[in-house]
Design brief:
The structure is a single chain. By secondary structure, the chain is of the alpha/beta class. It is built from twelve helices and eight strands. The structure holds zinc ion. Zinc ion binds next to helix 8.
Length: 288
């Protein structure tokens, strides 16, 4: 199946450490509503090891940690792009810019953060400390950018999970703040009704599996992630369980009309855009 045509803007939001069962357990209104209006799975599966560095490197390179070699934040190699096909470079070859909005870095890390982002091919802005602040930093670009990828990374759930334990009351409050920001982002951009846009929410890992306040294990609570795809051309329904950040990586250029490189290991989540089934034949209605 050829790449999708007609979508020119994709918003990607990583909800760091958001467990999919939190959406129902804490009755999060905006994320809960998205389950009716998007294509999604609450049984996605991240890569192993289930660390942010591994998962995001897979999201940006299309290959598993066994190939990219990044297992934690100490292993980041700016030379990654010499042997792997980076998502931002694939997009740039088709005049699709990628911009990133991430938590502000402590003084002294800003230069290295921007340098790594630049080598990945992302124009990055490090501003804000939480979902609301990072959304604020991206707001103007969200309103004016019609082409390319806008990437937002919201750290709230992961920070609360490490501090208080996954699914604790402190974690619940963090997920409520994330949910508010989801509501603002979806409402302000009108992305769900825009046939030229798509939005992807996913987590990089869960947490509280093997250890209450960590997420690096093969426990299902650590590996299971939500993946949500919305947009004016999206058909609401289920995405395959077991879908991964590798599949999201392949889906991003595919939605923008660009075939993913053959070396990438995921497959585009085409189900999100499958044609609606034909209407029930009239004869059956009569028979019923
Ligand atoms: Zn973490």
């Amino acid at each position: 199946m050829p790449a999708l045509q007609g979508v020119s803007r994709v918003i990607v939001v990583v909800l760091d450490g958001l467990r999919p069962d939190a959406i129902v357990r804490f009755a999060l209104p905006h994320l809960g509503e998205l389950l009716d209006t998007t294509a999604h799975t609450l049984a996605g599966r991240t890569v192993q090891p289930s660390t942010t560095a591994s998962a995001l490197t897979s999201l940006f390179t299309g290959v598993a940690p066994s190939i990219h070699g990044i297992r934690d934040e100490h292993g980041f190699l700016p030379s990654l792009g010499k042997r792997l096909t980076l998502l931002p470079k694939v997009l740039a070859a088709h005049q699709l810019p990628m911009r990133g909005y991430m938590r502000s870095l402590p003084f002294g890390f800003r230069t290295i953060g921007s340098t790594i982002a630049a080598r990945l091919g992302v124009r990055a802005r490090f501003a804000g400390h939480d979902a609301a602040g990072i959304l604020e930093a991206a707001r103007r670009d969200l309103a004016t950018t019609r082409r390319g990828v806008l990437y937002l990374h919201w750290p709230d759930a992961d920070i609360a999970g490490h501090a208080h334990g996954w699914m604790s009351s402190g974690y619940a409050r963090a997920t409520e703040r994330i949910d508010q920001a989801v509501g603002h982002l979806v409402g302000e951009t009108g992305v769900l009704d825009d046939p030229t846009s798509a939005i992807v929410f996913l987590a990089d890992h869960g947490g509280g599996g093997a250890v209450l306040n960590d997420h690096d294990s093969a426990h299902p609570h650590d590996l299971t992630i939500p993946i949500v795809i919305g947009g004016g051309r999206v058909v609401p329904g289920r995405l395959p369980s077991g879908s991964s950040p590798l599949d999201v990586c392949a889906t991003i250029p595919w939605m923008l009309g660009v075939a993913p490189p053959p070396a990438w290991q995921g497959r585009p989540l085409r189900e999100a855009f499958a044609a609606a089934p034909p209407a029930t034949p009239r004869t059956l209605e009569v028979a019923a």
